[in-house]
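Archive entry: two folds, one per protein. Generate the first.
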Amino acid sequence: MSGEWDPPYPAIELLLPHRPPMLLLDDIASADADGITCRARVAADVSATAPVAGTIPARPIWTVELMAQACAAWLGLGAYRRGEPIAGGWLVGVRDMVVHVDTLPCATGLTIRARHGFGGERLASFECEVSQGALTLGRATLNVLRHPA
C-alpha cells in the first residue's frame, strides 16, 4: 500500500452503520490511499448449530459481508480523514467470487483486505480477500455505491 494512513484509527463503529451482531469487523489493522486491511473474529457462540464444532458454514454471504464491511470501512475512513460526514452505502455487485473452504473457523483471527481498484468516492470497485494466516478463505471483486452524505 502507498501513502500509509497513520494510526490510531477510529473505532470501527464510527465508520460503519452496522451494530452487533451484524458488525463483523473488529478493527482496522492498516489503511492507505489504495486500500484497507481489517481484522475480524467469528464469535464461538455462532457455531452452536454448525456441522463441525468450532466452525460456521462458509456460505458465500459470510465472506461477502466481511469484504463489503471492509470496503465500507475504507470509504468511511476516507470521509473521516477529510472531515466529511460518514455515509452508508450499498453493495451493488459481486463478481469473480471464489470461496476455498466449506466452513469458517470460529474464535480465530481473520484478515480482510480490500484494495481500491477504480472509481471515486461515490461508486467504487474493490479487489477483496478474506484469509486466516496464509490460507485464503475467499476472494471477490465488489462494487459498492456510497450513499450521498
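Generate the second and append.
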Amino acid sequence: MIFKKILTSLTTTGMVFVIFTIFDEMAFSLFIQMYLLPTLLFYGVPVSLFADYLLKSIDGFFRVLIAMFIHLLFAVVFILVPTILGWKWDVLYFENLTAAFKSFIMLPAILSAFIFWCFDEIHKTKAFKDKCRYILGKIGELRI
C-alpha cells in the first residue's frame, strides 16, 4: 500500500511538472518540483494513508468525495498554518488569509493535491488492478 502511495506521489510530481511546463516557463516548473516531491512524500503520503484509514468503513461515491475533500483540505492547511500561527520567518507566511489564498504557492498545492487524489483513486479501481496484472502476466511470459 505504501508503494502505491509513493508511486502516486511520483506520478503526481511528473504530471504537475508537465502542466506547469505547458502553461509557464521551465524554470518555474523546476522550482515547484524541487519542493513538491519531498512535500508529497513526507506530507501527502501520510495524509493519504490517514484518509484511507478514516474512510475504510465507507464505500461508494460518498467515500470518494470525502477523500477528495480531505486531500484538498490538508493542502490548504499546509499553506495556511504558517499564516495562522504567525511564523514571520517562514517562507509561506502572509500578512492575512486573503493574501495566502491569492499567493502563487496555493495553486500548485491545490492542483497537486487534486492530481494526487485522482491518481490514488485510479490505483484503487478494479480495472487498473486487472490491467496491471495483465501487463505483469505478459512480462512474466517473456522468460528465457
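Annotation attached to the second fold: Residues 2-140 form one domain. The two ends are 31 Å apart (CA to CA).
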